[in-house]
Amino acid sequence: MNSRSNYRSTRTSLFDGIEEGRIRASSYSSHEIDENENDQAIDGLQDRVSILKRLSGDIHEEVETHNHMLDRMGNDMDSSRGFLSGTVDKFKMVFETKSSRRMGTLVGSFVVVFLLIYYLTRLV
């Protein structure tokens, strides 16, 4: 009797779902599950694409900001270069005469002493 019930349970488990209605239902639910997984994957891809789109937009804005900043810095450097070349020309004129050289040496010495005192006070 025990082997007979064992045989029935084995037979039932082997042929479970073979009836036509059950096969259709299981394949339909499998197809439906595949569709749901595909829909979830598509939603995930759409989310990733929108994140990448926002990220690339943010990168574009950052690049534009840095380009403007570099342009302004280049313009400032050009104006500083012009200012420094004018200053160098004035120093050349000062050092051309002997009396001006003494004055230039005095001013240069004063600047060096001032910078030395400034750095010594910063260290303390």
From TrEMBL:
<keyword id="KW-0653">Protein transport</keyword>
<comment type="function">
    <text>Required for vesicular transport from the ER to the Golgi complex. Functions as a SNARE associated with ER-derived vesicles.</text>
</comment>
<feature type="domain" description="T-SNARE coiled-coil homology">
    <location>
        <begin position="32"/>
        <end position="94"/>
    </location>
</feature>
<dbReference type="GO" id="GO:0015031">
    <property type="term" value="P:protein transport"/>
</dbReference>
<protein>
    <recommendedName>
        <fullName>t-SNARE coiled-coil homology domain-containing protein</fullName>
    </recommendedName>
</protein>
<keyword id="KW-0175">Coiled coil</keyword>
<dbReference type="GO" id="GO:0005789">
    <property type="term" value="C:endoplasmic reticulum membrane"/>
</dbReference>
<keyword id="KW-1133">Transmembrane helix</keyword>
<keyword id="KW-0256">Endoplasmic reticulum</keyword>
<keyword id="KW-0812">Transmembrane</keyword>
<dbReference type="InterPro" id="IPR039899">
    <property type="entry name" value="BET1_SNARE"/>
</dbReference>
<keyword id="KW-0813">Transport</keyword>
<dbReference type="InterPro" id="IPR000727">
    <property type="entry name" value="T_SNARE_dom"/>
</dbReference>
<comment type="similarity">
    <text>Belongs to the BET1 family.</text>
</comment>
<dbReference type="GO" id="GO:0000139">
    <property type="term" value="C:Golgi membrane"/>
</dbReference>
<keyword id="KW-0333">Golgi apparatus</keyword>
<keyword id="KW-0472">Membrane</keyword>
<feature type="transmembrane region" description="Helical">
    <location>
        <begin position="103"/>
        <end position="121"/>
    </location>
</feature>
